[in-house]
Automatic annotation (TrEMBL):
It comes from the Bacteria. This is DNA repair photolyase. GO terms for molecular function: iron-sulfur cluster binding; lyase activity; metal ion binding. Signal peptide: none annotated. Keywords: Iron, Iron-sulfur, Lyase, Metal-binding. The keyword S-adenosyl-L-methionine does not apply. PANTHER family: SLR0285 PROTEIN (PTHR43432). Residues 12-22 have a biased composition (Basic and acidic residues). It holds the Pfam family Radical_SAM. Residues 71-298 form the Elp3/MiaA/NifB-like radical SAM core domain. InterPro entries: Elp3/MiaA/NifB-like_rSAM (IPR006638), MJ0683-like (IPR040086), rSAM (IPR007197), rSAM_sf (IPR058240). Residues 23-34 have a biased composition (Acidic residues).
């Protein structure tokens, strides 16, 4: 399905009913319509359009107590992600919306329209203790719909106004539209951006992450951020054995040349419905390597497709995981990328003023 990570609307794990397709010999409605519209020699039809539902969020900050995640709180202005990365560990979150972690995750999106207002209210709560807020832990905050909804921009405006530190993770070039805010926050040592570079191969990237920025655009984004004074880390993630793993050193070198200052990495994670979706992707795109890829992943996951143990879920375990770590560390050191990022300043935080009750309208006063 062109432009989509998967065409499979896989059933989510909470569904009580199971459905099976049967071939009755007659073309289905979609198939017949597509055939009529396409005509002989035409390219295959595009997949379903992206649909965005508007939501009024109750709370916007999610707390984290996982020891392997380097932030205490996160904000995600959207649910789902149009980038369609087949390996995305956040796909199973769509199950809670009674939607498929497959095709629905990248086509049925939710925009939290009041995200900035809710963030302002939570930062103004008595006793709030500031710590860096991560933007984009379960969705890319700069996915294509940000151009229209601009929720991430609104969140950054609140954080900039209150001098609150933040980190951003993205694989989109759209972040450069907010350079004025980002540069101001970075000058106060209150911002770090991580740009994910999965591959330097544009064709592979288009299959793994069909609606994300091309590799060259991501490197240009690193350069633009670095030139604006923003600390940029390259996120070599996820590393997939025999798929993008051979590129580790090349990605690190290209990112350093573009202006990245630190390097971070994770091994591919396949929780819940992501595992069958990823296995299906392997059979479609790299069938000659599919078994080898899954065998190596299971070797790093204690013989399973996935192991959620905090001690190993990000980096894996065993000999191969150790070799990956050594390659990343040596490759990063060779091109001058460090492991540690600066400690962000929380001391300048100024709580936002709590909105008071609306005053009565005085037309005569308002005229002057």
């Amino acid at each position: 399905m062109r432009g989509r990570g998967t065409g499979w609307r896989i059933a989510h794990r909470f569904e009580r009913e199971q459905r099976a397709d049967t071939d009755d010999g007659w073309p289905g409605e979609d198939e017949a319509t597509a055939a009529d519209e396409a005509g002989a020699g035409s390219p295959p039809p595009r997949g379903p359009r992206t649909v965005v539902r508007i939501e009024q969020a109750g709370r916007i900050l999610s707390r984290n107590d996982s020891p392997d995640v380097p932030f205490e709180s996160a904000v995600n202005p959207y649910r789902g992600c149009e980038h369609g990365c087949i390996y995305c560990y956040a796909r199973p979150t769509h199950s809670y919306l009674n939607l498929s972690p497959g095709l629905d995750f990248e086509t049925q999106l939710v925009a939290k329209a009041n995200a900035a207002e809710r963030l302002r209210a939570e930062l103004a709560r008595p006793g709030y203790r500031p710590s860096p807020i991560n933007i984009g832990s379960a969705t890319d905050a700069y996915q294509p719909i940000e151009r229209t909804h601009r929720l991430t921009r609104a969140l950054l405006e609140v954080l900039d106004e209150t001098c609150h530190p933040a980190t951003v993770v993205t694989k989109s070039g759209g972040i450069v539209r907010d350079l004025n805010l980002l540069a101001r926050m970075a000058a106060r040592q209150q911002l770090i951006v991580f740009v994910s570079v999965t591959s330097l191969d544009a064709r592979l990237s288009a299959r793994l992450e069909p609606r994300a920025a091309a590799p060259a655009r991501r490197l240009a984004t690193i350069r633009a951020l670095a030139d604006a004074g923003v600390w940029v880390g390259v996120n070599v993630a996820p590393i997939i054995p025999f798929v993008n793993e051979p590129e580790i050193e090349h990605i690190l070198e290209a990112a350093a040349e573009a202006g990245a200052r630190s390097a971070h990495w994770t091994v591919v994670r396949l929780p819940w419905e992501v595992a069958p979706l990823f296995r299906d992707w392997l059979q479609i795109h790299v069938p000659d390597r599919a078994d080898r890829v899954m065998a190596r992943i299971r070797e790093m996951r204690g013989g399973q497709d996935y192991n959620a143990d905090f001690a190993s879920r990000m980096k894996g375990q065993g000999t191969w995981a150790t070799l990956l770590r050594q390659r990343v560390e040596k490759g990063a050191a060779r091109v001058g990328l460090v492991r540690q990022t600066p400690v962000l300043d929380v001391s300048a935080f100024v709580p936002p003023s709590r909105p008071g009750p609306a005053r009565p309208v005085d037309l005569q006063h308002d005229l002057f």
